[in-house]
Structure formats: structure tokens, C-alpha cells
Amino acid sequence: MANINMITPPFLSLQRFLRLFLKKKLSNLQWMAIILLAVGTTMSQVKGCGEASCDSLFSAPIQGYMLGILSACLSALAGMYTEFLMKQNNDSLYWQNVQLYTFGAILNMAQLVVDDFRAGYEKGPWWQRLFNGYSITTWMVVLNLGSTGLLVSWLMKYADNIVKVYSTSMVMLLTMVLSVFLFSFKPTLQLFLGIIICMMSLHMYFAPPSMLVGLPPTVRSDPDSLVIVSDDHKAES
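C-alpha cells predicted for CMP-sialic acid transporter 1 (237 residues):
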């Protein structure tokens, strides 16, 4: 649970920059909610000194941190570019998915051909053993990944990347609950605090500003009740 790579601050910062590129503005309150989301997801992955050596918390090589930042930035760039492609025309969602995943299918088949060529076709061509070892569990994983891809593409087309990021962050809560019942997982204090902070961020981002700061609702005046005052100070209804 502590090693779940949910969201990283570089991902969010680059994503917000690209949203500006897409001419989408965020309010100051939404910016604060995004920063709070990054803090919450980071806290949920931190181990206490009682669980691991304090010296080992930040003992990873600097190259690992740099590669992690690069991976986060590339993920943000890919997500925003995918959103741009999904929204630039009115094509069917399923047709757009076919276009996007065709490139991946071609590259995967090319990799299989190269592997067969290097192995000298000892095990036969790849299409004869493509589904070897598949079980019901394997097909369920494939179905789950396919359904997830369709849901993500739906979010990209009709919502945006920020909604997807918040949906992913809320998976922490569901994962924690399922892990407690299925794997006897013991949640940590850091995980609880991270989930609470993420839920606060979710409320801050999507709730109306008047609900958060207690602004009085705007009352529209009735045109029939207006009083017109003339120059001679006589009121006409």
C-alpha cells in the first residue's frame, strides 16, 4: 500500500501547465485543492520511523528520483495530449479508442516478431502461442484492463485529466478497505491522514465556492418590483 505510485507533485505541476496551454483556467481555490491532493497522496506513501529505518526513507539514489520525476512529467504530457486528441473532434468514442490503441497493437506485434526472430522461431510463430497459459483469471484481468481503458477514455473526452486524477486518488480508500478484508492489511496513521487530506481536496475542488467560504447567495431582483425615480423626485411604480 505504501508503495502505490498514485500521484506525484511533478505530475500535477506539469499537468496544470498544460491545462493553461489548453486555455482552461483554474481558480485559486482549485489550485490550493490540487496542492493539497499532492500532499495527501505523498503522505499516504510515507513510512514511519517505526516501520523502517529513518535513514532509509530517502536513501534511494539521486538517479532514481530524477527518473521518477521524468516519468511523472512524461505521464502528465501523455495524459494532456490524449485529452487534446479526444476533444479535438466529434468522432465516436469507440472509433477514437480504435485509433489510439491501434498504435499500441502494432508496436506489440512488432516486438513479438523481433523476439521470434532472435529466438530462431524455436517455439513457433507468436500467433500460435499467443494465448498459451491463459486461464479464467487471466481473461478477467484482460476484461478489467479493457473496461478501465474505456472508462478513462470516457473521462478524457467528456471530463478532463483532473477528474481522472481525483478518481485515481480515491482508489486509495477503496484499496485500503478491500485490503483490510482480503489480506488482513493494517492501515497506518499516515495512510489515514493521506486519505482524509485527499477527501478534503476533493471537496475543495468540486464544491461551489459559496459553500466553502459562506458567501451569501446572489438574489436576482424582480423587474416588476423596480421603482423608477424621475427628476422631480416622484416615484413611479
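The chain has eight helices and two strands.
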